[in-house]
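Wed. Picked up where I left off yesterday with RING-type E3 ubiquitin transferase. The coffee machine is broken again, so keeping this brief.
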Amino acid sequence: MASGAEKDSDSATAADTKLAQQENAANSLCPICLDPIDDTAYTDPCFHTFCFHCIKQWADMAATCPLCRWPIKTILHMVRSDEED
Ligand SMILES: [Zn+2]
Ligand SMILES: [Zn+2]
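Structure written out below (C-alpha cells, as returned):
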C-alpha cells in the first residue's frame, strides 16, 4: 500500500506588504514630484495631499486634481504656526 504523502508547507510571508503600506501613510509621497511631502497642501474638495509648491504650480496649468481629475476648488495649505494671536 502506498501512503499518500501530503505536504503542507506553511509559508507566512504575505503580511509584509501590509506593514509597508501602513508605514507609507505616515510619510506619504507627493504624486507630482515623488518626494516625501514637505509642505502639505490639500486639494478641496477631494482632499488629496501634495507639496504646496507642487500643487500650486500644477493648478496654474490645470485646475484639476492630478490624482483623481476632480476640479480643484481651493488648495488648502496646512501651516504649522507656533504663534497664536
Ligand atoms: Zn511635490
Ligand atoms: Zn484628487
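Quick read: The pocket of zinc ion (ligand 2) is lined by residues 43, 46, 48, 65, 67-68, 70 (CB under 6 Å).
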